[in-house]
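WARN no homologs supplied; continuing
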Amino acid sequence: MKIYGIMPTPTPYRAAASSGTLAKRSARPATGTYVRVTPPTAPAPNRNPAAAHARTRPTPPASPPGTFAHGIAAPFWRAGRPIKGCHEDSGETVTLMGEAFARSLEEVRAGRQVIRLLVDHDPDLVLCDTSDGTLQLWADGKSLDFGIDGRTRRGRRVLAMLACWPDFRECSIGGSLYPSRTLDIGADRYLSRVKLREVSIVRSGGFPGTRLTIL
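OK structure emitted
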């Protein structure tokens, strides 16, 4: 967009509504010199606000205390240390591989998916989600972790609620399985891809070793 100005301006001028050029307020001829002014190009708006919040590992704020919560939602399989959980619907014993949530985390970073934080898998009890950065997710090869940022308005409310629920200090996950990325060995099922839909705060975690800590 071009903007036209006058320098100097001995006669008042105004912009004509139809043509976008300058029109004089009086019949007096102009004595100034027209110059062309091009404003600096504004940066493109961020059309994907959720992408900035799906970071690899968020850094908890140093102070004040109680403004960040860290949770281990699901531990991954490690050599010599298989960690098994129970599939709630089928009752099968499942083990998560390290790449199980890679696709879902990529979708969150791209802003194409929103993961919610629930209470005990209840869809009517949504605490927060990844859309505004209050809920943050990452995986480090050992587990799927999440953080609750208490510096946002929703985050402050969630942490205040969790302070009143000291018995909800374990975690669970909800999602869909990909049959082609499932390996059955005896009675055990190994999952290398899961469509993550939600993380829940629960009294008893779906996998051993899950926990929620308010920092």
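Residues 1-56 have pLDDT under 50 and may be disordered.
OK
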